[in-house]
Amino acid sequence: MTKTVIKVGMASCGIAAGARPVYEYLQEKLGDREDVEIKQVGCIGLCFREPLVEVEKDGSRIIYGEVDIESLDKIIEQHVLKGTPVKEKAIISDSFEAPENKTLDKQVRIVLRNTGIIDPTKIDEYLEREGYKGLTKALEMAPDAVIDEILESGLRGRGGAGFPTGLKWRFARKAAGDEKYVVCNADEGDPGAFMDRSVLEGDPHSVIEGMLICGYAIGAQHGIIYCRAEYPLAIKHLNIAIEQARERGFLGKNILGSGFDFDIYIKEGAGAFVCGEETALMASIEGKRGMPRPRPPFPANKGIFGKPTNINNVETLANVAWIILHGASEFNKYGTGKSRGTKVFALAGKIVKGGLVEVPMGMPLREVIFDVGGGIPGSKKFKAVQLGGPSGGCLPESELDTPVDYESINATGAIMGSGGMIVMDEDTCIVDVAKFFLSFVQNESCGKCPFCRIGTKRMLEILERICDGKGTPEDLTLLEDLAYKVKDGSLCGLGQTAPNPVLTTLKYFRHEYEAHVNDKKCPAKVCTNLIHYTIDPNTCIGCTKCARVCPVNAIEGQVKQPHKIDDSICVRCGQCKSVCPVKAISVE
Amino acid sequence: MTCVVNESTAGMQQILEGIIEKYRGKPGSTIGILSAIQEKFGYLPEEAMDYVSQSLNIPSAEIFGVASFYSMFRFKPEGKYVVRLCRGTACHVQGSWLIGEQLQRHLGIEEGGTTEDGLFSLHYVACLGCCSLAPVMMVNGTVHGRLTPDKAVEVLESYRLEGKE
Ligand SMILES: Cc1cc2nc3c(=O)[nH]c(=O)nc-3n(C[C@H](O)[C@H](O)[C@H](O)COP(=O)(O)O)c2cc1C
Ligand code: SF4
Ligand code: SF4
Ligand code: FES
Ligand code: FES
User: Fold this and answer.
1) According to the 3-state scheme, what is the secondary structure of A306-319?
2) Is the CB of A45 under 6 A from ligand 4?
3) Which of A196, A518, A544, B120 is a good FRET partner for A408, with 20 to 30 A between their CA atoms?
4) The pTM is what?
5) Which residues, in sequence order, are CB contacts of A477 under 8 Å at separation 6+?
6) Would the pLDDT of B164 be above 70?
7) DSSP H or E segment with residue A347
8) A549, A550, A585, A587: which to mutate for ligand 3, most atoms within 8 A of CB?
9) In this predicted structure, what is the pLDDT of residue A230?
10) Across the interface, do A270 and B126 touch by the CB < 8 Å criterion?
11) Sign of the alpha-carbon dihedral angle for A130, A131, A133, A138
């Protein structure tokens, strides 16, 4: 009889949603049974249904969502022990209709081929799923042939800029020098994205294998993974994986008898967005302030400690072993034009099925958001989708037929970015979002370039004025003008792209800026100084709920008498509105 | 997790020596040394940075320059419970600023501050990677999701109870 395998999604977010007690309970109930294996796996992708438990029994596979102890008892009792699935709790099933069966249909999993499937702390599980076979194959090829294969696959950098990976490797290979570095950029700075973290947590060996193949191809001996310190679980899993890879002879001297030496260590970042930029990242690895420097010289020629260095993003590297093993043509059959393969997105914001998705390049945004992501919750209307984080832009409904490929997205004024995709509905104020991103970059500017340092500050002040209802029509012109100056006058990508959120929102949502400036209204009812909460005395039943919840005691009234809000005290937190049982409170 | 110790100067020196030894002769380890110090003391005491500067012969301006560049480093001791409220994009569009305001009011501190009783510190951070649970905050390593201003206060109060025990 085959074993029943139970998997619990234990990525950071699974743990946050309560997966640990679920796992412990399973251990307690079934831990000593010979015929049951309980595993911790990474992100399954269905983050919106966590905690997630998958049961593989008698050849069929069922995923349960929103699992708590009570439903777990049922799953153990009926499914694990007796073989009858608990249909009402199942969200994915290969044998009957389940609500999320279609969610995965449109996805293609190359980068996420193992996340959520294997236990990332066990190298054997990686090996069972073609692990290190790409490396084995690469070591039998000439380094230049490996580079040719990557070039032919059409793989482009997933860190944001989309530079052809094979070309970058060729430069690094050609660079003179016996000592070379491969760096994995795991700084993931976009403040609303978690693709790289999920890959590192859920399938660290795929990144290590990618680095090894790169190292072999360009002739490097040293690998460094620059990982944000905010990702403790990713760092833990990477350390375990590196240790195991060393034990099995995939890292170290004379790897698999090929004569190729390569080892990897981890360098923790210390919280600076600009350190995701490659020259700043190198400075940080050298222990200095993470300040960008002009290029050329490019890292390929003069990188870490002056040695030739190749820097790639986590997702880029996670593709590599798969491409070598399955061939460039298997990879580039997905995608369109100059964008081949797949792209991982972290879908979040006002979206029904928030989570991690991997779709073929070229899929229209609409399909990603509405078919894969399930659209907008409630009866709310779609307003915008934000791509590329602080360097990217907000696109309206009219741009939703844009396919996700580098060129098409660039043409809209946004960028593909690293994969953050934040959906916004009518309750999101677009000007506030622009202000949000600008205050982020303003804070993170390293201060080297006056335009980036001061220009973004001026832009932020203008946006604050507009949100406060003190903006003038001239402010919009000034804002646009400054935006172009900051773009042109900045040294690194941070400053060059910082104005993008402002420019795209001015382009597509100018009417919303105008409402703030001309009518002193915030259509989404977000900007504090432009809204007022009032109680309709005819509807109010005097239940006192609002007065009790108001954090600043702005509401007065006797029991069973109409209540009243003192607008001068009110801080616009909206809590009163959310507790009123008769909807007597409105905001205008 | 960070373990906070209050040591006499001699004790501090001993700890620092241990840290410095591990990194001596390795280029590019300033950030590593500083994080090791912060891990031990919960923040970067001035005396500790001076000591490192003398011992490794690095100008103290350089050490301070590096420390102040990175947002991870702190120059003041932290509260017993470190509250990290996510101010990433997904949390922002789900109203995390309202939670931030509520917590500031409730604790009577600004972002970056510590309550007088030393119980809570409040920080705003970028994406905690649990966007599907937005808005989210982390208290000493434990993530709390799907917050409302009310719920966030309740969470803190449960820590306060625990802290008094
Ligand atoms: C301000 C700024 C932040 C960046 N942050 C990241 C990041 O967090 N992760 C990343 O992989 N690339 C980031 N990049 C891009 C890197 O500079 C670099 O292009 C990338 O790591 C190259 O890898 P790829 O070719 O595989 O994409 C950033 C660039 C800039 C200008
Ligand atoms: S919006 Fe907030 S501050 Fe204003 S009255 Fe309502 S509860 Fe009080
Ligand atoms: S909660 Fe609503 S019904 Fe109750 S007192 Fe306030 S306004 Fe009136
Ligand atoms: S399923 Fe948990 S992080 Fe995605
Ligand atoms: S934006 Fe808050 S967890 Fe991602």
Assistant:
1) HCCEEEEEHHHHHH
2) yes
3) A196
4) 0.92
5) none
6) no
7) strand A342-349
8) A585
9) 80
10) no
11) positive
